Fold this protein.
Amino acid sequence: MLPIIPTDFTPWASLAGGVLIGLSAVMVMAGFGRIAGIVGITIGSATGGDRGWRLSFIAGLLAAPLLWLAVSGGFPEQSVSANLPAMAVAGLLVGAGTAIGSGCTSGHGVCGLARLSGRSMVSVVTFMLFAGLTVFVLRHVIGGGV
């Protein structure tokens, strides 16, 4: 039997976060006719002609933790590995995956699924399977404790 690793249950914060993500996706689609995929927004901010809204979106992503700090008085506890080489490899793998899959979790998972895109459904199933497999391997095979 696999050990149970406790995690915090945060239904209200999770609901609020989900609502804000959905609202931002709707606002980007309604206002600019674009998908609110973070990878596409980031790449487009460096290469696209419509940089204003993209840079504003990125600024909002960066400002959100500061707003949380101002409202709550502290940052949420994070459990991110201190193993910088492993984190660098993980970042490169995520970047490669978004390039191969033509999008990321926000583009495919939030916007693509909402549009009933078959390509997004395949992408979401693929990255969720690999995410689950990665967590299983790290926790139970390697023992790295994610």
Observations:
- Residues 79-146 form one domain.
